[in-house]
Amino acid sequence: MCFVYIIQSEVDHSFYVGFTQDLLKRLKYHNDPEMNNGNTRHKIPWRYFHVIETPNKSIAIKIEKHIKRMKSKSYIINLTKYPEMSEKLLKKYS
C-alpha cells in the first residue's frame, strides 16, 4: 500500500505533492524544522489536503508525476471536489 498525498501550507496556502507508505510519519517530517531540510521547511505548518491510496509504489509515482505535470492549483482543488478524478487516475495508471 502506498499513498499519493497533497499537503497545503497554512502559511501561504501553497501545495506540495508527494508519495509515501506512512502518512503519519511523512506529515511529521514535513512539519519538523529539525528533520526537514527540503523545500517544505520554510512553509511550516502543513496539513493534508488530499490523499489517494494506491496498491503499490509504481502507481503512486506515476500519479504523483501526473499531478505535478498539471502545474495547476485548480486541478489540485478539483481532485478534492470531484472524487471521480482520483478514481480515473487510479484506473489510468493501474
Structure overview:
Helices cover 45% and strands 24% of the residues. With 94 residues, it is an alpha+beta fold. It has a 3-stranded antiparallel sheet with strand order 2-1-3, sandwiched between helices. Helix 3 (73-81) crosses helix 4. The protein is globular and about 40 Å long. The chain starts with a strand and ends with a helix. The mean pLDDT is 97.
Structural class of the secondary structure composition?
alpha+beta
Specify the biggest β-sheet: 3 strands, antiparallel
The average pLDDT value, as a whole number, equals 97
Ranges where pLDDT stays below 50 over 5 or more residues in a row are none
What is the spatial order of strands in the main beta sheet? 2-1-3
Number of alpha- plus pi-helical segments: 4
Shape: globular
Give the fraction of residues assigned to helices: 40-55%
Question: What proportion of the residues form beta strands (DSSP E)?
Answer: 15-25%
Taken in chain order, the helices and strands follow as EEHEHHH
C-alpha termini separation = 13 Å
Strands, total number: 3
Oligomer: single chain
Quick take:
This protein is α+β, with helices and mostly antiparallel strands and 94 residues long. 45% of the residues lie in helices and 24% in strands.
Keywords:
alpha+beta; 4 helices; 3 strands; single chain; 94 residues; globular; 3-stranded antiparallel beta sheet
